[in-house]
Amino acid sequence: MLKLNVNGKETVFEGDPSMPLLWFLRDEAGLTGSKFGCGMALCGACTVHLDGQPTRACVTPVAAAQGRAITTIEAVHTDPVGKNVQAAWRKLDVVQCGYCQSGQIMAATALLKSNPAPSDADIDAAMSGNVCRCATYQRIRAAIHDAAQSAPKA
Amino acid sequence: MRILERFSGSVASTTAALELPAPANLSRRAFLQGVGGLAVGVCIGPALSACKPASAPSGGGSATAATVFEPNAFVRITPDNRVIIVAKHLEMGQGTYTGLATLAAEELDADWDQVSVEGAPADAKRYGNAQTGGSQGTGGSNAMASSHEQMRRAGAAARAMLVSAAAQEWKVPVGSLTVSKGVVSHAESGRKATFGELAEAAGKQAVPETLVLKDPKDFKLIGQQKLGRKDSSGKTDGSAMFTQDMKLPDMLVAVVAYAPSFGGKLKSVDAAKARAITGVVDVVQFDGGTGYRGGVAVLAKNTWVARQGRDALVTEWDDSAALKLGSTELMAQYRTLLDKPGAVAKHEGDAVAVLAKAGKVVQAEYEFPHLAHAAMEPMNCLVQIRDQDCEIWNGEQFQTVDQANVAKLLGLKPEQVTIHQLYAGGSFGRRANPKSDYVLEAVSLAKAARAQGHKVPVKLVWMREDDMRAGYFRPMFLHRVRAALDKDGGILAWEQRVIGESIIKGTPFEPFMIKDGVDHTSVEGCFEHYAAANVHIDLHSPETGVPVQWWRSVGHTHTAFAKESMIDELAAQAGVDPFEFRRKAMADHPRHRAVLELAAEKAGWGTPLKPGEGKARRGRGIAVQESFSSIVAEVVEVTITDGKLRVDRVVCAVDCGLAINPDVVRAQMEGGIGFALSAALHNAITLDKGAVQETNFHTYTPLRINEMPVIEVHIVASPEPPTGVGEPGVPPLAPALANAIYAATGQRIRKLPLVKQLKA
Ligand code: FES
Ligand code: FES
């Protein structure tokens, strides 16, 4: 039996510990905001945070998440940076089909937490693992800059 | 889907208010029947937020349901003051929910913040698309063109009834009332009421016989630069519902083993290992049929378990009737047709004879690979079959076609097939399959599961690899163009042979879209808007056995490349600047020319590019194409260093008539350019012995953020009726890019994807 902390709540999982975290979240925990796009760590649609680190849930065994704080798109607003990122995404209407955007927002939040004022090159480096087939990349860049600028000054 | 006619109305182009007949009223009873499927305890609205209690009449005649004001099929106003717009089109990223809501909310004078959108169920009587003969579906970039009058009338009818309810209650003349931001006011007495407060009384008013639509100068929402998309919120907090996210009680997920080559048949399966996996519920063999695959499905409650089960199946396939050729052999077969006359698509003057006598003929061949749509959400479909009906949940792009095909497969009537609308995680045309391939596959599978005792909802889920290899690709094409200049540097003659699979043959669209052996979608956009006295275009449509389908901007994906590349070659031949050459040759098409000029001006065409560093070579290219009645020109700037290409900037100008939501138009140009760039640079589906070689995003490599150029979009101000924007941003990109590479290096690239062609 695995003990997991998902979005601040303790929960248990009794199934296959090698099952990727993504399918635990989506099919067992009912948190469908994290998406399946490739299953091979190629697209980033499944990005969640483990102890704040952006992680591809589709290739992370659920057992590896034990003892770590799992944060998904459904709770990213509880982090002030995450909330800021979501607000920038809405302000600039980044989304098109939306399917990749949970992953984009999780990756962008992690970027801004480690680098509060990223350059375009920083953004390209941090975000190039996240595919958007609708190619909303220009607005993703702009929204990250916007969130960086509107961050509450510490 | 291709629009064959331009919008014939004149609402947006007129400057005077119009009187139009009101939309037919719909009884509440019919409405409740129509949305009866909502009452299954599952949120099927476009977003969770759309499922607040009042919006979901339970069918039990609850008090709230009884007071929802629902004047027509498109508008609902709840007592808690929400305006719900029912969208007849699929939201797959193109912004159609926002566009449809803008149109209705404009005439309604609603407050934008009180408006939300729900997807319509399949029901062609109420939600048919006038531009496609009344069948319900989304495509051809025609949602705004087909809806702008309809949705405005729907909003205007609702407004009139709200106003007459207030007039009756306050005993004042209708003409003394004003409406703004969802509030009806009587200035003299200072009385005010919200739409929600008036909803019940409005429901008792007669539907107006005539409607007065706004004069465009009074628009408050239409044309506003930044209105805010209606789907932004749900798509940024994880709550937006896609088919992939649907879960019904007792639902099973199916992952399927398929034949590796098109047309392969199952010989044998050993499912022992799959059945031994904890959580595998059953293994089901199901039949394919016309246009869809059969296979062996593993059923489980959890997607991962189903996939593990599928991967553990030991299958043998009979390839005797399967496609055996590879892409190289198919292209070689195409080449054998290059010198054979095809079905004539266009013939003016006598291009062949003129070219035979012309001094200098410029000739080029252009090659295009198969392309996958590779939408971010792999295809999927949720099906519940019962004795007398079938319910489907899908990011549904082709309601009427799918409903008919499913009904046929199950021996039901179309009206016994309910289809619930969800968001689609991209489509690019894939979800509108004329043969309903993945939908029928899901239904065939659910039917076989049912026969094995699983009378539960079944969700078919394709893994990325299944999606990539399922076919229904943009066809492979080969073009040959021969052209010559006249003595004044104009185009004397243009001869073009097009070779490629037909996406229409064998579909219900064949009678309308194939004429005299010419599939219109194979040649659309070949040679238009340039002046030439002698034009000959013909077409071969070889059958290859590879399933093919429309792909964002359809024929224009290749015809624009051939045309705009050859135009560039002719300009070089004439020794004229490529922009000036186009301008002159387009003299008879002022609207096209204006778009071309706008793009060139904003891009600084004619001014020198900032030189690159070191050995870097830089260049600019231009291209223009009309598609789906919108005209788009793009200027691409590139830098090439040691054979490495960087696309720096794309300047885009678009004339799409009235821009209902300018920011959505910009977003569609940006996205269309990025999508086109992915294909132009990198993408090809390669067949080897009938099997697709690409599997996932490491072999079919999508554009990533580090390759995304800076994009500037300029919209031509226009009073003309609105036309499409979902597709038209795509076609000019690839030729403008190839032309920029030529400008930088002198290398003409005539084969896509082009990165592989680039010389060091
Ligand atoms: S689904 Fe995990 S990276 Fe694509
Ligand atoms: S918004 Fe559609 S894939 Fe990113």
UniProtKB/TrEMBL annotation, chain A:
GO terms for molecular function: 2 iron, 2 sulfur cluster binding; metal ion binding; oxidoreductase activity. It comes from the Bacteria. The keyword Metal-binding applies. PROSITE patterns: 2FE2S_FER_1, 2FE2S_FER_2. InterPro entries: 2Fe-2S-bd, 2Fe-2S-bd_dom_sf, 2Fe-2S_ferredoxin-like_sf, 2Fe-2S_ferredoxin-type, 2Fe2S_fd_BS, Beta-grasp_dom_sf, Diverse_Oxidoreductases. Residues 1-76 form the 2Fe-2S ferredoxin-type domain. This is Isoquinoline 1-oxidoreductase alpha subunit. It comes from Panacagrimonas perspica. The lineage of its organism: Bacteria, Pseudomonadati, Pseudomonadota, Gammaproteobacteria, Nevskiales.
Automatic annotation (TrEMBL), chain B:
SUPFAM superfamilies: Molybdenum cofactor-binding domain. GO terms for molecular function: oxidoreductase activity. Residues 237-321 form the Aldehyde oxidase/xanthine dehydrogenase a/b hammerhead domain. It holds the Pfam family MoCoBD_2. Residues 124-147 are annotated as: Disordered. SMART domains: Ald_Xan_dh_C (SM01008). It comes from the Bacteria. This is Isoquinoline 1-oxidoreductase beta subunit. It comes from Panacagrimonas perspica.
